[in-house]
Amino acid sequence: MAKAKSVLVLNGPNLNLLGSREPAIYGHETLADIEKSCREHAQSLGLTLDFRQSNHEGVLIDWIQQGRGKAAGIVVNPGGLGHSSVALLDALLASELPVIEVHLSNIFRRESFRRHSFVSEAARGVICGLGAHGYLLALEALADILGAKKDA
Ligand code: DHK
């Protein structure tokens, strides 16, 4: 049996506050709830997870750099950094890994400044507006791209 492929799931600024942060927009699930469902789903897809959150751009970039050669793909919810960070985009491009971008909220139904994400330029696909379910769909997309089920 081939080794399970490892996916880096990165969460950017303020996502540690999920559950209590503007629940009408971001839902009632905490980041720990999302991590739990991601882990369960990843197992069924033949993936292992490295699930992380940071409020700091440089820390997220360090983790992406460390993922080169270790992770098979990346799921990223960049939080507000998606709308502002060329450096995060550059790190994702340099990783040469398949990236799926997730936003819990529908960024196209909100303020106009949220409609552009730098990160999208590095992403194979972008999922937004489906809440925590978006993370599970992102894992399915990566499993498909990586052929994880076939090799697991
Ligand atoms: C999360 C954030 O923190 C916001 O800055 C983005 C995104 C949207 C989300 O929907 O998950 O604009």
Give a brief description.
With 152 residues, this protein is an alpha/beta fold. Helix content is 38%, strand content 18%. It has helices at residues 23-26, 31-45, 57-67, 86-95, 133-146, 148-151; strands at residues 5-11, 47-53, 73-77, 99-103, 125-128.
Structure keywords:
18% strand, alpha/beta, 152 residues, binds 3-dehydroshikimate, 5 strands, 6 helices, five-stranded parallel beta sheet
What does this structure look like?
It is built from 6 helices and 5 strands. The model has no long low-confidence stretch (mean pLDDT 95). The chain is α/β, with parallel strands linked by helices. The structure holds 3-dehydroshikimate. 3-dehydroshikimate binds next to loops.
Topology:
Blueprint: E1 5-11, H1 23-26, H2 31-45, E2 47-53, H3 57-67, E3 73-77, H4 86-95, E4 99-103, E5 125-128, H5 133-146, H6 148-151
Parallel strand pairs: 1-2, 1-3, 3-4, 4-5
The structure holds 3-dehydroshikimate.
3-dehydroshikimate binds at residues 14, 77, 79-80, 103-105, 107, 114.
